[in-house]
UniProtKB/TrEMBL annotation:
Residue intervals passing through the bilayer: 6-28
PANTHER family: ALDEHYDE REDUCTASE II (AFU_ORTHOLOGUE AFUA_1G11360), NAD DEPENDENT EPIMERASE/DEHYDRATASE
Classification lineage: Eukaryota, Fungi, Dikarya, Basidiomycota, Agaricomycotina
Molecular function GO terms recorded: oxidoreductase activity, acting on the CH-OH group of donors, NAD or NADP as acceptor
Homology family: Belongs to the NAD(P)-dependent epimerase/dehydratase family. Dihydroflavonol-4-reductase subfamily.
Name recorded for this polypeptide: NAD(P)-binding protein
Gene3D superfamilies, sorted: NAD(P)-binding Rossmann-like Domain (3.40.50.720)
Signal peptide annotation: none
Database matches in InterPro entries: NAD(P)-bd_dom_sf, NAD(P)_dehydrat-like, NmrA-like
């Protein structure tokens, strides 16, 4: 099946999100027409203004918004997808509700079924590094590259094994997210295999995402950088992983619409393996007046010791990722520093 040419209509589900809003920006730049789904039209008009400030033509034949407020409603997805050629789906249900793992799975499969019904040609799902491994887990292999064949089975087991006590802990949301995204992506590939829908399917797997926001408040990952700039060190107890710039993550979503090589693949949007010393050194160099915290000790998990096979995504990006330094400095600027 041919890649989607410019002028095709692409639906971006939850377009006001951090990665989604960059994806929309880059898709418009690439000449696609965009239909963004939103939960409220107020946010939509803020996003339109933000895109306009970037010098884009945001007239209604280029950029339209539709309300979609239930990620489990096949009827809403069908209505939103009708007449479109491609779908990009980065949206997630609320992670603090009931029955979240099942909701993550269903909010992946339901739009795929709707897309098949209305004849969508390409479907790009936003996955996550966490569906492949749990950052900081000592069982991550160090003697070989992590590839698109890897799955976070350990994360799923951890969820299935959890005691009632563990389920009440605030950290359990991370376990739910890892298990939900792993099982959802596996269910998605199984759907492709057994149902042979009319669309080609790609999953983009971001790692930890930093980079400037297009508009709105800071995404959770950016608030971690913010806390470091303010001199707080609690973020530094996290295991450093791969960091990619949100602009590269957005670009890989758009490339997945028009590069034939991307069809049927899991595509890493992972960028650079990092250590805290490297990140803090960049911050000290550019923000000598900020109270940047002391380096935490190096350890077998800091800097990030494992390696991911980025060959396909690096090739799709034309050989070049946005540098860690540019990513960090542009993130800080977008936070007002
Ligand atoms: C889950 O439980 C099984 C069976 O008790 C055990 O073998 C496995 O190691 C546990 N896995 C995790 C990740 O806790
Ligand atoms: C944060 O700072 C406190 C006080 O200096 C220190 O005891 C602690 O180990 C630091 N934590 C990290 C993760 O660096």
């Amino acid at each position: 099946m041919a890649p989607l040419p410019p002028g095709s209509l692409i639906v971006i589900v939850g377009i006001t999100g951090y990665i989604a809003s960059h994806t929309g920006l880059l898709a418009l730049k690439a000449g696609y027409r965009i239909r963004g789904t939103v939960r409220s039209l107020t946010k939509a008009e803020d996003l339109r203004s933000a895109y306009e400030k970037e010098g884009l033509d945001v007239s209604r034949d280029k950029l339209e918004f539709v309300i979609l407020d239930d990620l489990l409603s096949e009827a809403q997805f069908e209505a939103a997808f009708t007449g479109a050629d491609g779908v990009i789906h980065p949206a997630l249900p609320d992670l603090y509700g009931e029955d979240v793992v099942n909701k993550i799975i269903q909010s992946t499969l339901i739009p795929m079924r709707a897309a098949a019904k209305v004849g969508i040609k390409r479907f790009v799902l936003t996955g996550t590094l966490v569906s492949v491994l749990t950052p900081g887990s000592p069982s991550i292999p160090l003697d070989r590259l992590i590839t698109d064949k890897d799955w976070n089975e350990e994360g799923v087991q951890k969820y299935l094994n959890a005691t009632e006590e563990e389920k009440k802990s605030p950290a359990f949301v991370g376990v739910v997210y890892a298990a939900g995204k792993t099982l959802a992506e596996q269910a998605a590939w199984k759907y492709i295999e057994t149902e042979s829908p009319p669309f080609e399917f790609t999953v983009v797997l971001p790692a930890m995402t930093w980079g400037p926001k297009v508009y709105g408040s800071a995404a959770t990952s950016l608030t971690w950088l913010w806390s470091i700039l303010k001199g707080e060190n609690s973020t530094l107890s996290r295991s450093p992983i791969y960091i990619e710039d949100v602009r590269d993550a957005g670009k890989l979503h758009v490339l997945s619409l028009h590069e034939q090589e991307a069809a049927g693949k899991r595509i890493w949007a992972a960028g650079h393996p990092v250590g805290w010393t490297e990140i803090l050194d960049i911050l000290r160099k550019h923000y000598p007046d900020q109270p940047i915290p002391k380096n935490p000790p190096t350890s077998p998990l800091n800097p990030c010791p494992w390696r991911i096979d980025l060959s396909l995504s690096t090739k799709l990006l034309g050989g070049k990722w946005i540098s860690l330094e540019d990513c960090i400095v542009d993130s800080a600027k977008s936070l007002g520093y």
